[in-house]
Amino acid sequence: MQPADATPPIIRTPWAETHELLRDYYDTEWGRPVTTDQGIFERLSLEAFQSGLSWLTILKRREGFRAAFDDFDYHRVATYTDLDVERLLEDTRIIRNRAKIQATIGNARAAVALEDEGGLAELVWSFKPEQTPMPHTMADVPSQSPESVALSKELRRRGFRFVGPVTMFALMEAVGIVDTHIMTSHLRGVSGVWER
Q1: Residue at 195 is within a domain
Q2: Quick check: is 47 catalytic?
Q3: 196 falls within a domain
Q4: 184 domain residue, yes or no
Q5: Owning domain of residue 131
Q6: How does pLDDT run across 164-183, given as a tens digit for each residue?
Q7: Distance CA 190, CA 187 (A)
Q8: For 8-45, how does the pLDDT look when each residue is reduced to its tens digit (9 = 90+)?
Q9: CB-based burial label for 88 (10 Å; 0-12, 13-18, 19+)
């Protein structure tokens, strides 16, 4: 039996225990609210590049992505030309996938177009559900939700690409819109958006 003043054990989601970069990301960033347009654009872009790959692959290249895409300043990315696409296809710091690079540029333009209606962050956060999952095991964590399906449809309608329902649910987890930390995690409720 632990003393009453003992520090509670650190219990992480299992994927966070597989690599130091994942552990640090989980402990310091994942699931915490991101509410700026640039912050959402960065996460949306990284989730798109992650499609079909592991998140660890993206984390290892994150600083390279930031350098290659002007720190995800979507106003600047929106001005990229075919020359920039070719430049990015030669950049070994990132995932060199033409379709994903072109989608990121197109998504930046779509994000600029949203500014007259409140912006990308406001749109994404408008799909916050009334309740968040309460998983006890990883098997309880859904891969999508009605809200992520609706967000995906709305973003596609507005010209965004690589924004499928599963990718959008991962985005919602990453930026604190839903809390899928397992119930025994020391970080359950860390976003402040949802009660523990």
Answers
A1: no
A2: yes
A3: no
A4: no
A5: 19-174
A6: 999 999 999 999 999 998 88
A7: 5
A8: 677 788 888 999 999 999 999 999 999 999 999 999 99
A9: buried
- For residue 50, the one-letter residue type is Q
Distances (CA, A) of 59 to 49, 50, 96, 149: 11, 9, 15, 25
Domain count for the chain, please give it: 1
Whether 20 is catalytic is no
Q: Which of 26, 30, 42, 55 is catalytic?
A: 55
180 found inside a domain: no
User: The tokens 């992520």 sit on which residue?
Assistant: 148
Residue reference for tokens 């930390």: 181
Q: Per the residue annotation, which of 25, 26, 74, 80 is the catalytic one?
A: 25
Residue linked to tokens 């994927």: 15
Residue with tokens 């406001």: 122
Q: Find where tokens 């540029």 sit.
A: 105
Mean pLDDT across the chain: 93
Contact 170, 153 (CB under 8 A): no
Alpha-carbon Rg for the chain, nearest whole angstrom, is 18
Q: Which two tokens stand for residue 80?
A: 């990229």
- The answer to whether the CB of 194 falls within 8 A of the CB of 139 is no
pLDDT of residue 196: 61
